[in-house]
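Input.
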Amino acid sequence: MAAVMNAFIQAWADRIAQLGVPGQRRFPVRRVAEDGEVIAELLLTMWSRALDYMPPVHLEFPDALSAALTADREVRPDDSRYQLRKHIRASFVSYGIKPARTSLPSEGTWKPGPENLTYERMRFESLRTDKDEVFRFLWENRKALEVRPGAYTEVLSVGPCTRVGLDGFTVHETVAEYFQMARLTVGELETLKITVPEAYIRALREEQRLARARRARALARGGSLDALERAEHAPFLENDDEATTPVSGGGVLIFDEYGRLKFHVHNDVFGHRQSARLRYLWESGQLEARGGGARTWGARLSAIHRLRAIDARRFPAEGW
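Output.
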């Protein structure tokens, strides 16, 4: 919010300076207010539209910045009047936030989607509204789009979108979001170079040991575990490396008015962000080791503040 507000103030101040001559300190109040209103509306629209250009999971500040720059450029290519994109980028950089690594270095906007895609078996009308059609597109182009076939994949939403600029310039797009999830053993995490805290691995193996001991006691009594115990500790594994940890990823597909892919913004379900994500979830008390594998708790803001208040496990200082 501070970065956006500082960009607003700087863009407004620069626009006011353009109204007069060098050294002028007094300006027409009505004109100043009108320009401030226009700039505020443009910024609000920019960030509202940016939601469609952000990955649905593991969002970071660089992603948000690139999404906003892309959303604004698509509808308002000419930014010479207020230079909002320049001011937004400079303000974010002053806070140590640069555009995403997968963006264009010169503009900070998302790179265009890959060109070597298959459209032969796609139906344009269905691609705008049908989740199954979008899934077929993903599967047909899974290699080019870097969609992992070994993970559960679900298309979350798909729908047409019409964006209209202040000058009447109209952009027709289709926005589709998909989600991927997988459960990986400790060995698979190591193979993919996804690191997890040693304390988490120890807790996971201890939970497995307790689960196997509980099963052994139940079988020795000639009985069986009740439904709650089965839900909490099954499966009872014989090999520590078979315990699984959930990882997730996903992306957003932006199609143009002709059904061709414009942008593919995604986070790899087996990618480099998983290590930092799992470490954060563990340290904030949102990743729990269980006998049959780990599970994560929903990271709602209310839960984050509650866990921080009770100092769950070890929450990094944040200086709010």
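Residues 115-320 form one domain.
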